[in-house]
Amino acid sequence: MRSTKTAAKIPTSLARPQPVNEGRALAQPKQLLPANRALLQRQTAPSAPSAQPAVPQTQPQRQPAEQIPYRLAPSFQRARLSEQNVTQAIGRFGRTPVANELLGWLQARHIAVSIVFVARSTDLPEQTNEPALGTFEPTNRGQSQYSVFVVGGATTTVAQRNPSGSTSFVDTFVNADPESIARTIFHELLHVWFINRFPSSPIPTGHTAELNPPNITPWGTIYNEENYDPHFLAKLREYDAQTAPPQNH
User: Fold this and answer.
1) Distance between CA atoms of 55 and 207, rounded to whole angstroms?
2) Which DSSP category does 120 fall into?
3) What value does the mean pLDDT take over residues 104-122?
4) Which helix (H) or strand (E) holds 238?
């Protein structure tokens, strides 16, 4: 700390003249105190690059068909089936371009569609002699609201070891395969689109009642074509192509 005292003034007559030494080295710079040296180093040191704010990861935008409304029927809830299983199926169905094409066509005409998941075929609104995986209501064209009903459960046979050591086979009710559920959702939505798009078709709903279930093979799905309207069958094949697993070459 600098002193506040004033230095005594030396008379001019007593001041000793300083010899001039032109060869004398220049005065050395003053030594910095440690505190000042540290401050200078901080001021002259290159500053570290400032951390960039983290860019939030944007979620892929969901397609309209992925957001189709749905509800779980009481039979579905009583069977304690998995809601996550059916939402996975909706996602698989909803990411296909053909599903969004059909739903977009309906929405442009102010036709709303929702899904109702039931547990078993016997829980569907209308029953036939053959077990079904889905249906839709109402069945006439020109309505503003349609519901498609889709079965969310399936019966499978499992082996069970008996206390005697023998094996027996029992039926167990489980969640249906999400891929199968997704295919049924599309099939029923296709009905709704078809009856409104092609009201004059000789096959009013898109396929006949004598339809056999398609034969799904690793090489593609085989349909008995004579029982389908060509427009209905073409959309089924579009869906098959868009959900087919990639081929290994």
Assistant:
1) 51
2) S
3) 97
4) helix 230-243
